[in-house]
């Protein structure tokens, strides 16, 4: 819902704070935003995983790409990875369930194991639409190296993402608990 210029303002603010900036581009026409700035990562929403012409154009930029799996099966994911990897191999794959909010019975964190085994050359993560922080923390315990979790200023706002999003306090607790988990995991010896 933001203009390209408003995205650019968000980008500048994130960079001032020392943060990476991730941009989701949903059409080839919308790629014109890349004339204003170069994000650190491009994110492909689950709904666009099968939009191979879009993936091809995004991959041509050689900007690292994060893809969410959503309802995709092995063939759709392989097709997406093949299109992107014809230009570069800086790809991250996020296990994602296209349900807002996602019921815990539908999460299937064991998919992270599947992705790690079948796509060992790529970073594997989890796009979390559940309520709360526990599933995101469990995903890190399963080996996810990227967590995507939406944040909001008010869970009662209009939109499908709001109920599974975190407020600022929830985001801070999630980050704290992930960092504690990482320390607790230690090293294999």
Please give a structural write-up.
Strands 1-2-3-4-5-6 form a six-stranded parallel sheet. The radius of gyration is 17 Å and the shape is globular. It is 37% helix and 14% strand. By secondary structure, the chain is α/β, with parallel strands linked by helices. The model has no long low-confidence stretch (mean pLDDT 95).
Relevant terms:
189 residues, 14% strand, 6 strands, 37% helix
Amino- and carboxy-terminal Cα gap: 49 Å
- Helix and strand sequence: HEEHEHEHEHEH
E-strand count: 6
* Proportion of residues in helical segments: 25-40%
Summed over residues and divided by their number, the pLDDT gives a mean of 95
Cα Rg = 17 Å
- Stretches with pLDDT under 50, minimum 5 residues: none
Question: What's this, in brief?
Answer:
The chain is of the alpha/beta class. It is built from 6 helices and 6 strands; from the N terminus they run αββαβαβαβαβα. Helices cover 37% and strands 14% of the residues.
Explain the layout of strands and helices.
Blueprint: H1 4-16, E1 22-24, E2 41-44, H2 52-60, E3 65-68, H3 74-85, E4 91-96, H4 110-118, E5 123-128, H5 134-141, E6 146-149, H6 168-185
Parallel strand pairs: 1-2, 2-3, 3-4, 4-5, 5-6
């Amino acid at each position: 819902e933001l203009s390209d210029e408003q995205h650019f303002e968000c980008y500048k603010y994130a960079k001032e704070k020392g943060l990476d900036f991730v941009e989701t581009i949903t059409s080839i026409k919308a790629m014109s935003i890349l004339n204003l700035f170069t994000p650190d990562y491009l994110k492909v929403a689950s709904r666009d995983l099968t939009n191979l012409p879009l993936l091809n154009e995004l991959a041509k930029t050689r900007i690292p790409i994060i893809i969410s799996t959503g309802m995709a099966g092995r063939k759709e994911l392989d097709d997406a990875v093949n299109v992107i990897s014809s230009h570069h191999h800086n790809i991250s794959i996020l296990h994602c369930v296209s349900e807002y909010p996602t019921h815990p019975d539908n999460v299937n964190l064991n998919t992270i194991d599947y992705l790690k085994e079948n796509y060992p050359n790529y970073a594997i993560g989890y796009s979390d639409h559940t309520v709360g922080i526990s599933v995101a923390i469990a995903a890190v315990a399963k080996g996810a190296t990227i967590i995507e979790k939406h944040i909001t200023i008010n869970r009662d706002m209009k939109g499908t993402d709001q109920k599974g999003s975190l407020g600022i306090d929830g985001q801070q607790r999630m980050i704290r608990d992930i960092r504690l988990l990482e320390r607790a995991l230690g090293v294999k010896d």
